Amino acid sequence: MTEIQISILAALGITFTAGTLVAKHLRNRRQRQQLEQRLAPFAPKENGVNIVHANFVSQSERSLSPALERAHRSVSLMIEQAGVKISVPSLLTTTAFLFLLPLVAASAFAIDFAIPAGVGCLLASLPTIFLKAKRAQIRKKFVTQLPDAIDLMVSVLRTGHSVPQAVKTVSEELQAPVGSEFAQVLQRMNLGQTFSQSLLYTCEKFASFELDLIRRAATIQAETGGSLAELLEKTNSTLRQRLKLVRQVGVLTAQSKLTATVVSLLPFAMAGLLQYLSPGYLNPLLYTQLGKALLCGALILMVIGAILMRKMATVKV
Question: Which residues contact 170 (CB under 8 A, 6 or more apart)?
Fold first, then answer.
């Protein structure tokens, strides 16, 4: 094995080990923090300091970088939002493996590292792209099902049943993701939380403005009184109008989004066609220093242009 191959394999091993240790450390800390929060009302205090906290949190955990902890929490939340059963260490290991795989292949076949490095970056981004696409798909389905869930709750409440019974009916009658999420809401209500407090985590999980509007309506009703069924019905009518407006905006901007996609993919299609019709035509662009620099600059400008066109074609409602 050459020195480059040994260095790449060593980097792969170090990345895997470091990612596993850091993720395991952060997961243990999160579990201990959750246990501490549950025991806090019952734990004795000494000089104003919770003894449970002093016993569970070590000095190394106190010195852990807050930025690293926030990154771990963000990745864990993204995995949970996507509904994929994978741990953070497994995701980090897969990302590192996909990034180093083209580099190892390039060193084995004595290929220049410029193109394999770009391919490695592209492959390493695939797990994150998949999770974000899955998260967007689940969130869209959740928002679509939400008005039907609220209508069902209103019907149950008007028959004289309680709020927990209405939530239970939604969890049993509707499919995932709304059904499974309302089942978790019901579990939190059984543990003593109010309806609005139980919805708080789900609002954060799905980043749902629509569900947060329902939560605020339930909070106002709990503070001021009145008919929850009537308030939910009026709020749900607003949500349906909003979803209708979102669909109309999507139809009006569909052509712009399609244009942005076609313009972004057109250079790659033309390059492949030219290489097929005239083999070697793109060799100066691929195998010279000036050509590589121009190619990298063009790719960067294409990415920036694609992002700008996507932003221009996206209208927030």
Answer: 149, 152, 153, 178, 179, 182
Cα distance between residue 162 and residue 224, in whole Å: 18
In a domain, 85, yes or no: yes
| pTM summary value | 0.67
| CB proximity list for 58: less than 8 A, separation 6 or greater | none
Is the domain of 265 the same as that of 179?
no
**pLDDT score of 31:** 66
Regions of the chain short of the pLDDT cut 70: 1-65, 112-114, 315, 317
Rg (CA), the chain: 26
Give me the percent of the chain exceeding a pLDDT of 70. 77
In a 10 Å sphere around its CB, with 0-12 CB exposed, 13-18 middle and 19+ buried, how is residue 101 labelled? middle
The CATH number given to whatever domain includes residue 179 is 1.20.81.30
Clarify whether residues 106 and 189 are in a common domain. no
Domain interval for residue 228: 140-240
**pLDDT in the model for residue 165:** 93
Domain count, the chain: 3
Which helix (H) or strand (E) segment holds residue 314: the answer is: none
Only one residue has tokens 């009145």, namely 226
Strands (E), the chain: 45-46, 49-50
